[in-house]
Inverse folding.
């Protein structure tokens, strides 16, 4: 996918956010058309966090994901079409059509594990990070979880294990306030992650505002510090999921949540949308012109199907 020359107005990270949004919108349209054999969990609204995390991954680093991994796989695949083909069950897919969506990995990009079991990947990540230490390597292990995952015992146990063994483990908590269809206030008391981290002497950082440039800079600083101290760290990112839990959005007739590529790249006109943040920085007129040019010449990822 190529951005026009207007991308010179964007930072490289912002260009990646825009490309990822367009890919996800294309994927959403194909979900509406029932093109895939497997359930797919989109990450519209998480693009700033996804690109910031992927920007710090280097050869030898390990990234462990949840069932909601499509945004990462699209952002980090050498050819995004291979992800679409994987969802179709094609032998040309990223994993030859054998892994589908919720367990999709891409070893060449550093995505070593994805799990549909809530918080399961935290324990596995501890094993990866411990293995790195035993081998005398300084590579970073990054594990993604959510506000639902931190309710599981594996989360706290993982923090204690990582701190006890001084592991280079970065735990990223994607807090979108939802676990499936239930908000935090509907299912549990509030959890103060900063206090939990303080109790086991683990560094904690909170990211908010969906500015991919700021996110990437702060993530890079966290990684640099972990290279020095060899200690775990927790980064909580405040996100808003702009699509339904799984499948297409809208997901049913009368669904109040609407997403359509014909309506443009920006889904919500507030800070919950990373594309809105980019548009506000550049100026809305400039962004709208670029968006019109981009969408007018866009190529469907799998227009040969």
């Amino acid at each position: 996918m190529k951005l026009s020359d207007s991308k010179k107005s964007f930072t490289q990270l912002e260009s990646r956010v825009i490309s990822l949004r367009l890919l996800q919108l294309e994927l959403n349209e194909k979900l509406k058309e029932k093109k895939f054999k497997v359930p797919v969990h989109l990450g519209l609204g998480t693009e700033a966090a996804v690109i910031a995390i992927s920007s710090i991954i280097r050869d030898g680093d390990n990234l462990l994901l949840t069932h909601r991994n499509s945004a990462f796989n699209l952002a980090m695949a050498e050819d995004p079409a291979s992800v679409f083909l994987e969802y179709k069950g094609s032998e040309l897919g990223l994993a030859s059509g054998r892994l589908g969506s919720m367990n999709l990995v891409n070893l060449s990009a550093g995505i070593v594990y994805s799990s549909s079991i809530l918080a399961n990947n935290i324990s596995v990540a501890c094993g990866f990070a411990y293995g790195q230490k035993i081998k005398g390597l300084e590579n970073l292990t990054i594990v993604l979880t959510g506000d639902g995952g931190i309710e599981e015992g594996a989360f706290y146990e993982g923090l204690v294990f990582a701190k006890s063994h001084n592991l280079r483990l970065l735990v990223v908590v994607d807090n979108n306030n939802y676990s499936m269809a239930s908000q935090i206030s509907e299912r549990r008391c509030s959890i103060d992650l900063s206090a939990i981290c303080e109790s086991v002497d683990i560094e904690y950082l909170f990211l908010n505002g969906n500015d991919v440039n700021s996110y990437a800079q702060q993530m890079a600083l966290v990684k640099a510090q972990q290279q020095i101290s060899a200690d775990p760290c927790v980064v909580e990112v405040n996100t808003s999921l702009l699509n339904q839990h799984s499948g297409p959005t809208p997901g049913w007739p009368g669904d109040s949540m609407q997403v359509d590529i014909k309506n443009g790249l920006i889904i919500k006109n507030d800070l919950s949308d990373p594309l809105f943040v980019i548009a506000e920085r550049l100026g809305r007129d400039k962004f709208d012109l670029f968006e019109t040019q981009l969408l007018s010449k866009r190529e469907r990822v799998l227009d040969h199907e």
User: Anything to note?
Assistant: Residues 12-32 form the longest helix (21 residues).
